[in-house]
Amino acid sequence: MALQVDLVAADRKVWEGEASQVSVRSTEGELGVLPGHQPMLVVLAEGEVRINAGGWQTATVDGGFMSVDHDRVTIVAETVDGSGMAS
Amino acid sequence: MGAQIREYRQRIRSVSATKKITRAMELMAASRVVKAQQAVRESTPYARALTRAVSAVATFSNEDHPLTTEKEDVRRAAVVIMTSDRGLAGAYSSSVLKESERVVARLRDEGKEVVPYLLGRKAIGFYRFRQRDFAAEWSGFSEKPTFDVAREVGERLVADFTTSTDEGGIDEVHVVYTRFVTMVTQEPEVIRLLPLEVVEGEEAPEPEDLLPLYEFEPGASQVLDALLPKYVNARLFNCMLMAAASELAARQRAMKSATDNAEELIKKYTRLANQARQAEITQEISEIVGGAAALAESK
Predict the structure, then answer these.
(1) Domain A3-81 class?
(2) Is B28-200+215-254 a CATH 3.40.47.10 domain?
(3) Residue of B nearest to A9 (CA)
């Protein structure tokens, strides 16, 4: 079981792939998602998104939101700085 | 006679200079239109994710939001007009402006006050020249819009929409832009941006396929609060990208026909110049022959 992760900015898709864990900062605090997580929609705060796909990948977002639904994780933000990510 | 040939040659030179320019513009537009279409495609995942999320909230909670509620008494309607910054694109800008005039007239007939928001120098020039008032203007990006501009426009519209009508707010927002259908067809189109109708684009869930019961964090209304303005921005951005692609396609077409025309003209003037040259030679010959004949006779 793995998570299917999409990281999407307003003008492009930044990253997509499988991951074993996703960690984001919501407006309420740090939040981790593992496979089998219940469906949810979370408003994100400005900060880092970390995706564990073999190794930790880090991107910076300016807010946005994350939806989790049947192990499909979509992280959406208007601007994403994914310069530190390997595809 | 010699003067005439010189004039034709000069025309040919000037037309071929023009042809070089229009040809260059045609090629530039052609390569940029591909990039613009690519940009439209690349913005789709974002728009799709947002639409999905917004409809999820709309389905699983009965939250009302100021951006989705119809106002009972619509008095002021905003019209966002998207045109280009530069001309030389055939009827691109004028067809958008024509469409916008129709919308404005319709809204006025419905007894609404119309507040224009202008994008692109052509629209601004159109309104300035006629000394009409408008609420806001943005320009300098029409060929390659960035998301920052869409966000700026979106934030302004949402702010004005949430202001009450008595304080200069607006009650609904219409957008006039050019929809990119294919490389040869682009149509001016009017959409109502606010209040939002979120249902579009999302297929109804199958009855047996139970949709997941989303958990909202911090809460459904806060999620909606965060999502809807982004949704507005995303739609605006999509319109702007479409308009940019349409503009470039229109320019490519206009420049292609300008180049063809120039070729036609060059051909015509070359013919005329050749004819003039021939006529000159014929005349010279007949003068010589006539002169020789006259000399022979006088002997």
Answers:
(1) mainly beta
(2) no
(3) B46
The architecture that CATH gives domain B2-27+255-298 is Orthogonal Bundle (1.10)
Q: Report ipTM for this prediction.
A: 0.85
Q: Which long-range CB contacts under 8 A does A35-38 form with residues at least 24 apart?
A: A35/A1, A35/A2, A35/A3, A35/A71, A36/A1, A36/A71, A37/A68, A37/A71, A38/A68, A38/B212, A38/B215
Q: Does A87 touch chain B (CB under 8 A)?
A: no
Name the A residues in 42-81 with CB < 8 Å from any B CB: 42-43, 63-65, 67, 69-70, 74, 76, 78-79
Tens of pLDDT, residue by residue over B106-163, are 999 999 999 999 999 999 999 999 999 999 999 998 888 999 999 999 999 999 998 8
B49 contacts in A (CB within 8 Å)?
Answer: 6, 8, 67, 74, 76
Measure the CA–CA gap between B41 and B143, rounded to whole angstroms. Answer: 16
Domain ranges of chain B: 2-27+255-298, 28-200+215-254
Is this structure's pTM higher than 0.90? no
Q: What are the tens digits of pLDDT across the range B183-225?
A: 888 999 999 888 887 654 445 544 444 556 788 888 888 888 8
